[in-house]
Amino acid sequence: MSRIIPLIVAIIGTYCAYQGWFQYGFWVNKGPGGGFLPVIIGVLCALLCIYEAIKNTDTSVRFERKHLFPIIATILLFFAINIVGMIAALGLFMIAWLFFLEKFTIYRSATLGICTTGVIYIVFKLFLHVPFPVGYLGI
Amino acid sequence: MEVFQFLFEGFTVALSFENVLAAIAGALLGIVVGGLPGLGSVTGVALLLPLTFQMDPTTGIIMLAGLYYGSMYGGSFSSILVNMPGESSAITTALDGYPLTKKGLAGKALFTSNMSSFIGGTIGIIILTFMGSFLAKIGLAFGPPEIAAVILLALCSIGWLFGENPRKGLITTFIGILIATIGVDITTGQPRFTFGSMNFLGGVSFIPLVIGMFGFSQIIEMMTQKLNKEKFNKKITLKESMLNKSEMKRIIAPSIRTGLLGSFVGILPGAGATTGSMFSYILEKRVGKNKGQMGKGAIEGVAAAESGNNSTAVGAFAPLLSLGIPGSGTTAVLLGGLIMWGLQPGPLMFQNNPDFVWGLISSMYIGNLISLLASLAIIPLLIHFIRIPNAILIPIITVLCVLGAYSARNNMFDVWLMLAAGVIAFLLISYHYPIAPLVLAFVLTPMLETAIRQSFSMSNGDPSIFVRGPITITLLSMIVLFVISPMIINVVKKKKRQEQDSDFLAS
Amino acid sequence: MKKFLSILLVTILSVSLLAACSSKGASNQSADSSKKEFSPKRDIEIVVPYSAGGGSDVIARVLAKVIKDKNLVDQNVLVVNKPGGSGAIGNTYTYSKQGDPHTLMTWAPGQQAGTIINDAEVRLEDLTPIATMALDSFLVAVAADSKYDSFEALVKAAKENPNQVTVGGSGIGNEDHLLFHLINKHYGTKLKYVTFKSGGETTAALLGGHVDVVITNPNEIMAQIKAGKVKALATSSEERLGKPLDQVPTFTELGQPEVQVVMFRGFVGPPEMPEEAVKYWEGVLKKVSESKAWQEDYINKFNLDSVYKGSEESEKFFKDVLDQYLELHREIGTLK
Where do the domains of chain C lie, and which CATH numbers do they carry? Predict the structure, then answer.
């Protein structure tokens, strides 16, 4: 993995340089074109990353399953937003997180969740008028 | 001194009961809006603007200036407490503020941030009072080639923030530059790297990127650190949060230095508080006494960043008031407000509406003081926040990340962007790639690219425009002197040392 | 005392906003088709597809203010910024509000041309035109101490030194750039265009002597003209503008009536907005347009031309302007 990161970045750099040169133009109308920076930085970046991949001496980092929890939870949150709308979804998220992951009692989870939702509703919706997405249920 | 007379008259306007009340209300609202991730002074001013139309223009602008001010103070809170910059200008505050929190010194970080915001702001206001229109004229001398040189200097100085592994720092800087090229290229109108998505036409949105890279990546990391919570649980009292005498001494010099620098950066066209705080942080990292500790939790770092961004915010008023040219996003919104109030911001405003202008300037002194007092009063409340156990803190920060990413542009796509940025940043951080250079390069690159291309358009392709005057020549020689040559010297020294080491080993 | 009251009012208002529960109707189905008269049942959203501080933002906020002051609508009027994708994000958002009579969006020529150039999904024909409220013009201006004291002198210099005379503007494909293109085309000049990010930066570059000429809305540069720092050489309006610009010749007077870019500010609604709602909003906007507050706070202060065109008229007008823009974009090469 410690070599994969620089290699992926090297590929991205090469792609940027390629696009910059062939699509956006390096030097256009007597001046730098849209591809000027992508080409220069893309090439430098790719070279440096390849060097880094060769030289790299990092020990591999251990990832734990727990690291995935917030990512998965946030993705689930998106679906919930589509169904019940942003504010209710955030409340449900809080409750579900505290109940399932932190093993809080349902009573405590619900209290905390509802409090958070209440604060968000008052500050963001009523006070600042942020137009939150409403879900299919129209909440 | 004519100025003192005007200022005195200004104070009599600003110190009326209703105006002080307006300043207090504005400052408190600002602290809240600035502290909430995703919402910044632009949103706050835009929201409050219609409410102020019923007021007298002077009272209205005093309230708005108070808000602008308060948001600068509030912006640093979430940076320090949860590593999530509430305002883009507070990114550099997080670099030292959050490490201080991790050490259990959140109170000191908050105190430092407030004190140096005050110092920086005050310096900015004093400069605005006495030299505002003069400096605004100097600002005009900075055309595209000069701006290009300034930004290039800043971009090169990011190198000072790389830390232990300069190669990795350079890689993330390059990534930041490449991300910054996404979006419609304003010089040709052609979309770049947008992959057909409307959401990328305006470029990668800055606030979701920052919230993801700083805040969300932090949450992923915190998942496995739950056991360490005892560290936070030790009681932090207000008394411990106060800075002692020697600490006060440590932050005063950096605050003054960066306050002066920031005021100047604010005057440059299109620079803004983010650039100002960044320049200030880099300056401190370069010349400060405690530069070795910066980035690991030094109060000097917080001081430099906060003093810098507050003074830049004030500096941006100079071109607005004396020329009618907005220097930042927020002042652009204010400009609209001024016109609706029936004022014509422009070269004549000092003559035609002296009550208003001097009332505003005087109110800044008051707004700054009120914001300081209000923020100091909030510290005890805020330090309770970090005592919340991680089990509850993690979902709360996640909710804030989602809210912040959404409310910056009211767009769900930005929430996805935040998530992606968070995951990428987490991977990068795990392998010791520093994130700050990426974000800073992302801020600077569009300005640099635009300025370079404007210069070439102006000169019809003649590169000699970059050495056309004393300003560019000075700046370019500074780049060579301060940035490139130390790097070469470092490399040479390292080689020598290696040679010596190998000689030593050989012998 | 009045001042004090007004602050108190605002403070109370801000606080009461916290408490006040805007009881929002669950959905928009309540718009009964049997009823002839429409009246809003919940908060009104005015969508601005650009960030705060721009021209679209200003018209939306003044509109909200006038509606509130005159009590023309019973509900709260909220301005919602949905920036991104040269307006496309806001357009898509409004499109998603299908049939909703409580949503309006600001509409401008650059925004509608952008939908075609960027190949966006939501275009003019997908939305419901409601009204046109104002026309804007452009000035060709130079610094007061410039050696070009008339438009003819500028044209002459530009012909003699091709690509040397620089013109500052706010971006390729924007209205000012289209006008720039027309000037080059019809006067046979070779002016050089330099892109800036905003009107403010363009003005700063002119005052600092970094560009020779700017093309900009009167509003952006009025303060400088009044202060005698900048002088206008030509205006794109059909007739001469009011004082202090009454000495500035139009392009028709300068021999090229073809040099003309229409810049309007109007409003559209979501697709399939009920007919009675369109009528209702036409009525409200007409009242706004005729009000003294609108004429003073918006039209005069921002140096605009007041017009009012209703839904049907606007639909045709928007299309005509769009056609002109697309033709110009093809000439410039931003649209293939």
Answer: 40-135+262-332 (3.40.190.150), 139-235 (3.40.190.10)
Using an 8 Å CB-CB cutoff, list chain A residues near C20: 126
Residues 433-452 of chain B with CB under 8 A from chain C are 450
Determine the angle formed by the axes of helices A86-96 and A106-120, rounding to 10 degrees.
150
Q: The tokens 């600035």 sit on which residue?
A: B34
What mean pLDDT is reported for chain B?
Answer: 85
Task: Give me the pLDDT at residue C86, please.
Answer: 79
Q: Supply the range of the domain harboring residue B360.
A: 2-227+243-468
Please report the pLDDT score of residue B58 as a whole number. Answer: 83
What is the separation, in whole angstroms, between the first and last Cα of chain B?
A: 74
ipTM of the complex: 0.93
| For testing contact with chain A, the best of B175, B392, B460 (most A CBs within 10 A) | B392
* Residues B32 and B175 occupy one common structural domain: yes
- Per the domain annotation, does B238 fall within a domain? no
pLDDT at C16: 41
Whether residue A126 and residue C20 make contact (CB cut-off 8 A), yes or no, is: yes
Give the tens place of pLDDT for each residue, A19-76: 999 988 898 878 898 899 999 999 999 999 999 998 877 777 778 888 899 999 999 9
User: Which residues in chain A touch residue B410, judged by CB atoms under 8 angstroms apart?
Assistant: 130-131
Specify whether the CB–CB gap between B61 and B55 falls below 8 A. no
Give residue-wise pLDDT tens across range B437-455: 999 899 889 889 989 999 9
The residue in chain A having the minimum alpha-carbon distance to the alpha carbon of residue C78 is: A129
